[in-house]
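Researcher: If convenient, please comment on what follows.
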Amino acid sequence: MNCISCNHSHDENYCPKCGERNGVEKITFISTLQSVFITFSDMDKGFLFNIKNLILDPKKITEDYIKGQRKKIYNPISFLIIAVTIFLFVNSLLKTHNPAPVKEVNTFSNTLSYKISYGGGIFIKKYFKFFWVFTILPFALITKLFFKRYNFIEHIAIGSFIIAQATLVGTISYVFLKFPIIYDPFVYITLFWLTYRTFKNKKNKAETFGLTFTTILLFFFLVFASIVTLGYIKFLLE
């Protein structure tokens, strides 16, 4: 049989010349669905593998990914994007359509602070997916500042793992408590727990705890400051 990629004649399961698999099936709708299902449901690799190992040992999965052991691990950026998509899907399912509020005179609603906060809220609601995904940049910048072991791109990968897992926790929390994910305390508790376990230094746990607490505090401040800035820009453009 000739290899479909390099036309090398062989009888092996994989081409000895280029490594292409022998007897690859044609792509069909069923085969595509099967591939997607396996990617998300296989506890030994893929999406659920990430979730399981970020719960059990976040330090190991991030170190393995950075070292290049990536066959079983789902790409961290894709993991984050899908986690955010799942939250938005759940959010849309549970969204209730309330009747329009009765207009009333409210002195506070005419203040600059209200208009800025309201504008920032509207912007985040509309572009939440992009905003939350890009929070990996300030998160990675802060972890790089305090935990200098890896380069910035590697910290982006680590941040993607951590924020994605926290987003999934926030999705579960939203089902029961309806907290906006940006202000959900369970999200930040998860961020703290995963960051601490990922960067934990056995020789100085107290220092790691302090740096982790500062990391999450700064991250929350930057997220809040970004919302205020976006609200102010929206106010200026109106």
User: Anything to note?
Assistant: The two ends are 67 Å apart (CA to CA). Confidence is low (pLDDT under 50) at residues 97-105.
